[in-house]
Amino acid sequence: MPSWPNSNETSDGDDEYMSEFSSMQMEYFVTPDTVIHPSFYGLVIESDRRCILHRQMPGKFVAFEGTDTGKRFIGCATEWVEAPWPVILQRCLSKLWDIYHEQNLGRAQDNKAHGTEVAKLQKELDSLANQYSQLVDDVPKLFDYQDGKKCHDMDCTSQAMNELKDKKKQLEEQAKIELKMEKLKLKKEQRCILQSQADIIKNTRKAMKEIEVDRDLLKEEKKKLENVIAELLKIGHGCKEKLDKIKEVVMEE
Predict the structure, then answer these.
(1) Which residues lie in coiled coils (predicted)?
(2) Do the Cβ atoms of 76 and 34 come closer than 8 Å?
(3) Domain positions in the chain
(4) How confident is the model at residue 10 (pLDDT cuts 50, 70, 90)?
(5) How many Å separate Cα 88 from the centre of its chain?
(6) Residue 101, class by beta-carbon neighbours within 10 Å (0-12 exposed, 13-18 middle, 19+ buried)?
(7) Going by DSSP bridges, is the β-strand pair 72-75/79-80 parallel, antiparallel, or unpaired?
(8) What angle do CA 210, 211, 213 make, to 5 degrees?
(9) What pTM did the predictor assign?
(10) Whole-Å CA distances, 245 to 212, 238, 239, 251, 252
(11) Residue 108 to residue 175: CA distance in whole angstroms
(12) What is the pLDDT of residues 196-207, one digit of tens each?
């Protein structure tokens, strides 16, 4: 443990302490983080000791770092009041501090990502602001352009209307001509149909007349044939009577 000089020592004593200070390792003067504790704070007033490093009265502190969390010490050079904590408690403290540092690292990474996102959004916002300013500047130009274009469009519209009227007139005339041609074509087809019907009726009547003539001829031929058959039957009966008489004569002899 480092020693603490008394306030009533001479300059020779100071030189001795400075010599002792120079021979000590600086790691002894690295103190842990601390926390305010209501039962252990302030300066050490019970003795006249002085800090070798600062030549001031040492203070009372409670550690808040690593496995020494909660232990009391006197600084600057760390002089522990309590003995080291049990191993199990040190492991628990080490685990808790690992979790704490891990969460801090996560928060730092989140803050970094948040800062990056904020910078990106700010850049986009600046870009949108520039675009908005450009649009504000372009609006008057657009109105001027539209005013000039409106006159040109009116002339173009008038010319287009005239062209549409002429085209409509041409289409109407063409439609009238086509309608007239269709009517003439329809009349011609109707005449052809009527002529065909007349020819069919005429031919039908002629055929019917020829059939009637043929039927009359057939009737006459049939009548003649019936007469011939009647004569033949009459002659046949006469021949039979003669044969019967000849047969009787032969039988008598």
Answers:
(1) 111-235
(2) no
(3) 1-85
(4) very low
(5) 58
(6) exposed
(7) antiparallel
(8) 65
(9) 0.35
(10) 50, 11, 10, 10, 11
(11) 83
(12) 777 787 777 787
